[in-house]
Every structure is written in C-alpha cells, then in structure tokens.
C-alpha cells in the first residue's frame, strides 16, 4: 500500500496531486489543438441525437452531481441546449416525463452507483438516448449506456472524490465545446481560444498545487476546531462551493454548507458571526462586483473569510482574513482550478483532526445500495 501511495501519506493527497496528469489524460487523443478539433467518438457517432435533443438531463449523485451542475452551465452557455440536472435518487422515484427526444447523461466515477443505474434504466425504458461518463472501464453503467466517454483519471482509491471530479469537468467541457462548435453556437475564433485555454489547464493546476500547498496547510491549522463552515460561490463556482463543502464534511466531519453567494441574504446570513468561517470563491471573471458586496456583508458581521481569488486581486483580498491565489482563467474553467485548494483545505483540516481521510466513517467508495 505504501508503494501504491507513491510517497504520499494518503491516497487522497496523491490523487489531488495527480490532477495535472489525470486532466491531461482525459483530454489526450480528444483535444487535438494543432488541428483545432475535439474528437469524441461517443458524441460524434450520435451527433444528431444531441443536436436534435429537446433537452439534456444529467443524472448523478454526490460529487458527480456537482460536476453535472457545472455541466449545465457549460452546455447551456456554449451549445445552447437546455439542460436539467437531477439527483438520480429523486429522478427515478418521481415518474419523470421523458421522451425519445431526450438525451440522458449519467455521470459516475465508479459506474456502479445503484440509484444512478436505476435512473438510467428508467430513462432507457422510456426511450431516451442514454450516455455515460464513467471512470471505471467496463463498469455496469458504462455497459448499459448507448454510448459514452470515459474519464481517464486512473483508479481513485480515496473515498472522497478529487481527480475523478476534475476529469468529469474536463469531459463536460469537451462535450459543451464540441456541441457548440457543431451546432453553430460557438464561433470558430472563440472555440480556438477556449480549447487553447483548456489545453493549458493541467499547467495551471500544477502551478496551483505548488503555490498553494503550504499556504493551505497553514490555513487549515487555524480551523481544526471549527464546527461549521459556509462555502459560497456564484455562477460556475456555485457548484464548486457545494463540492468544497461536501469534501470538508465527508472527511473532517465538520458541518459545512455550500450556497450560491446571493442566497446568503435569504437565510444563511443569520448564521454569520466571528465563529463562522466562510470560504468564498471570487475569481475576476464571474460576478466579481457582486462577490465584493457579499464579502462586505460577511465582514460587517465579523465572519472569517477565506477567499479564493485570482493573482493580483486587491478588493476581496483587502477584506479577507485568508487569501488563496489561483491563476486567472475564463469563467468556465474556474471551478476546475478553484477546486484544487478547496480539496487541499478539506484534506489538511481532516488530517489535523486525526480523521481517517481515505476511509471516512459510514461511507463507501461505490454506493451499490439504494
Ligand atoms: C464523493 O466525494 C463522494 N464520496 C460521493 O458523493 C460520490 O461522488 C457519490 O457516491 C457518487 O459516486 P459515483 O460517482 O461513483 O457514482
């Protein structure tokens, strides 16, 4: 096991550090930058299904559901196809309206999650075209879908999903750009500049890992005794906030909630005092001014702000108690980049609390029960 951990203390840390490679591997053979194309046989062979779809329904659980939410932002923005994202467990029990004009995408690292599998079967029975985004090759979900794309993240051992999540976001980004280019909603110049930026994401993740690792470790020390956390983000980073909160709660057992930052004033603001740490994702591109006012509201109530900002940020940084800098990207890539320090934060808080990071209590890597 020590050899498999490759010198890291836990699989989770190893997997966090593998992300430049796992994202690169997920794009390899698909994103052909010098030809200016995205090759995805699973999509291309069924392009008419996607093109003529009334809507795309994404079903998943847990972290994969968070990836699905970001997929909704991506596909609606770049391909202009309506997307709905559902918890597989809710979808399957509510007699959903599905027709043969729907495309249902299931996202699952393990490819074995019982609720996702059952929801897919239901969609298939009702005539939808079903597509899988799985990490485990030849898994049950991969086998029952009409087509799919594997994430090539490699085996994920830590129960808390990290590299599978960013690989899922990579696939969803490729799908959104490919569909958008094909159906004419994403012009060639924008397509070219977006794929060049996507190609450079692994380098940016490397940069984030080396520039934030020690800093985040130190920040974590100050929150070992915390009992609650709020995670806030807007737009693409709202699901990233949900994911940051899930990472923290599942491995450190600290209660954490993710919220769209604007929803704060509809309830969670009542919780804010000097004992409430708030992680806020505040990149330049993506409603930055609105986030600035959210931070002002938090500071007026003495909340402790841990801000994830772009390099060179001044406004949010001036108010925050802790600042984590990440490189600037187009908004659609910011959840991939911002998730990395949030994974590290959850990891180190859990380690300092003496928790079993790779095998948290009550959780299984694949949830094969309903
Ligand atoms: C992630 O950290 C969790 N352990 C969990 O939410 C997980 O994402 C969920 O059970 C779905 O698993 P799947 O991707 O294998 O279907």
TrEMBL record:
Q: What is its EC number?
A: 2.6.1.16
Tell me where in this chain the SIS domain is found.
46-185, 219-360
Task: Report the superkingdom from the record.
Answer: Bacteria
Q: Which enzyme class, named as a word? A: transferase
Q: Where in the cell is it found?
A: Cytoplasm
Q: Which residues form the active site?
A: 365 (for fru-6p isomerization activity)
Q: Per the annotation, which location comes first and is thus the protein's main one?
A: cytoplasm
Question: Which controlled-vocabulary keywords does the entry list?
Answer: Aminotransferase, Cytoplasm, Glutamine amidotransferase, Repeat, Transferase
Reaction it catalyzes? D-fructose 6-phosphate + L-glutamine = D-glucosamine 6-phosphate + L-glutamate
* Role summary: Catalyzes the first step in hexosamine metabolism, converting fructose-6P into glucosamine-6P using glutamine as a nitrogen source.
- Description of how the protein assembles with itself and partners: Homodimer.
What is the official name of this protein in its record?
Glutamine--fructose-6-phosphate aminotransferase [isomerizing]
The full protein's residues present here are 248 to 617 of 617
């Amino acid at each position: 096991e020590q050899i498999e951990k490759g010198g890291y203390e836990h699989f989770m840390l190893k997997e966090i550090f593998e992300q430049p490679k796992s994202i690169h591997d997920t794009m390899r053979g698909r994103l052909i930058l010098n030809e200016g194309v995205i090759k995805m046989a699973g999509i291309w062979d069924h392009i008419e299904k996607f093109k003529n779809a009334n809507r795309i329904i994404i079903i998943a659980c847990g972290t994969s559901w968070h990836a699905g939410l970001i997929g909704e932002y991506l596909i609606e923005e770049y391909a202009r196809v309506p997307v709905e994202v559902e918890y597989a467990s809710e979808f399957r029990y509510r007699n959903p309206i599905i027709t043969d004009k729907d495309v249902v995408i299931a996202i699952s690292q393990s490819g074995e999650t019982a609720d996702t599998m059952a929801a897919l079967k239901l969609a298939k029975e009702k005539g939808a075209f079903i597509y899988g985004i799985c990490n485990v090759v030849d898994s049950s979900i991969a086998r029952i879908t009409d087509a799919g794309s594997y994430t090539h993240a490699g085996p994920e051992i830590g129960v808390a999903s990290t590299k599978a999540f960013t690989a899922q976001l990579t696939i969803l980004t490729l799908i959104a750009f490919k569909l958008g280019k094909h159906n004419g909603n994403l012009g060639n110049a924008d397509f070219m500049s977006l794929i060049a930026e996507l190609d450079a994401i692994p380098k940016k993740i490397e940069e984030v890992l080396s520039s934030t690792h020690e800093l985040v470790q130190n920040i974590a020390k100050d929150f070992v005794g915390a009992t609650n956390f709020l995670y806030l983000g807007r737009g693409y980073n709202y699901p990233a906030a949900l994911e940051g909160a899930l990472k923290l709660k599942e491995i450190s057992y600290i209660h954490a909630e993710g919220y769209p930052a604007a929803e704060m004033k509809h309830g969670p603001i009542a919780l804010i005092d000097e004992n409430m740490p708030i992680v806020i994702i505040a990149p330049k591109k993506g409603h930055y001014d609105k986030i600035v006012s959210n931070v002002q509201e938090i500071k007026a109530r003495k909340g402790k702000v841990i801000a994830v900002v772009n390099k060179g940020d001044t406004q949010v940084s001036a108010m925050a108690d802790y600042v984590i800098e990440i490189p600037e990207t187009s908004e659609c890539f910011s959840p991939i980049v911002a998730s990395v320090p949030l994974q590290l934060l959850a990891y180190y808080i859990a380690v300092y609390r003496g928790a079993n990071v790779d095998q948290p209590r009550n959780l299984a890597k694949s949830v094969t029960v309903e």
